[in-house]
């Protein structure tokens, strides 16, 4: 274990920035969704990319306890954006 206050190792920095880049990309996708809505062609392409080419029609079941069902993928994605749970899976 590293001493508190010491810099990260090269490998730790790689993991740190990898996570940071992914989070920034997820935040950017959420801003696009909030600005343009789910019917926007760019947002739809992102949704298709996330789901191997097809946007699930719904209802959507998630791993989230207590609120497992969403009426469609758009509602599910908006929920993830609002709660900043970007990597919550269906």
TrEMBL record:
| InterPro entries on file | Proacrosin-bd
Source domain of life: Eukaryota
**GO CC annotations, alphabetized:** acrosomal vesicle; nucleus
Q: What is its main location?
A: cytoplasm
Question: What is the species of this protein?
Answer: Rhagologus leucostigma
Q: Which UniProt keywords apply?
A: Cytoplasmic vesicle, Phosphoprotein, Signal
Q: What does this protein do?
A: Acrosomal protein that maintains proacrosin (pro-ACR) as an enzymatically inactive zymogen in the acrosome. Involved also in the acrosome formation.
**Per its record, how is this protein called by name?**
Acrosin-binding protein
Q: Where in the cell is it found?
A: Cytoplasmic vesicle, Secretory vesicle, Acrosome
